[in-house]
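Hi R.,

Here's the chain you asked about this morning:
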Amino acid sequence: MEAHGSGLRRVLLLSFCVAGIWAAYIYQGVLQETLSTKKFGEDGKRFEHLAFLNLAQNVVCLVWSYIMIKLWSIGGSGGAPWWTYWSAGITNTIGPAMGIEALKYISYPAQVLAKSSKMIPVMLMGSLVYGIRYTLPEYLCTFLVAGGVSMFALLKTSSKTISKLAHPNAPLGYGLCFLNLAFDGFTNATQDSITARYPKTNAWDIMMGMNSWGTIYNLVYMFGLPRGSGFEAVQFCKQHPEAAWDILMYCLCGAVGQNFIFLTISRFGSLANTTITTTRKFVSIVVSSVLSGNPLSSKQWGCVSMVFGGLSYQIYLKWRKLQRVQKKKKT
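And here is the predicted structure, written out as tokens:
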């Protein structure tokens, strides 16, 4: 009876995590798309300063992580010093900025698909630079994802979707997405290196360190450089309070979503988190197509299914590998 109650609690907790991640990031995607395509106010102006979203997100997540550390007293436990994140902070500033800027040139569903193909640069770097050999099923996953993204990019986008973009330019948009993935790869590798050197580093230490440097870099970029558009972004928000509210909600969704991701990884492992976030991306595309007026053709839906088929197969392969490792430990 006790085991049954414990199992039920785990199911309820997992459902809570799924609902939290989906709600936070799907709504954040809707807000991101709104801020990149909507014309605000009577003058019908677009919010052109999308890099400002990264600065706002950094500030909110920095404050959030500081509160969490103080609230739960989990700081000061021998974790990595904040200055060790300076290099990862650079790539974590440039990468997401490119991903957001891509929304000026391609639709939100196209951006989500392109950013879902993270395994492609990872496998290319692994095989070409480090000589890693991958299995046939792993290559099949990559082929499905790469093929799906490529065909989606080549298919004609609806005129309704193109009319909502600030500066339609598919090659530039996809190029920015793949650069985003490259910078994300360096960021993840650097974070892994830091946690290996400082094993007592927890998720909130990482969040605070990364966002401290992100805030510094983005403040310099937005307000310190001659071509920085920080003051224009602030002025736009003053003139269009609706945009300011959307930006605040966008940032809060990111901070809350991080909470649920950390909870999922700590209680159920990274594989469960990968599964939840992958399905969330598919739902985001459906929501964008239905609610935000980005109609996809049957061929484009075929490409979307191809990409997420490859991602789902990759998750299954990871699950199989995890099962084998656990079986070896038992024996």
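One quick note: The first strand starts at residue 39 and ends at 40.

Cheers,
M.
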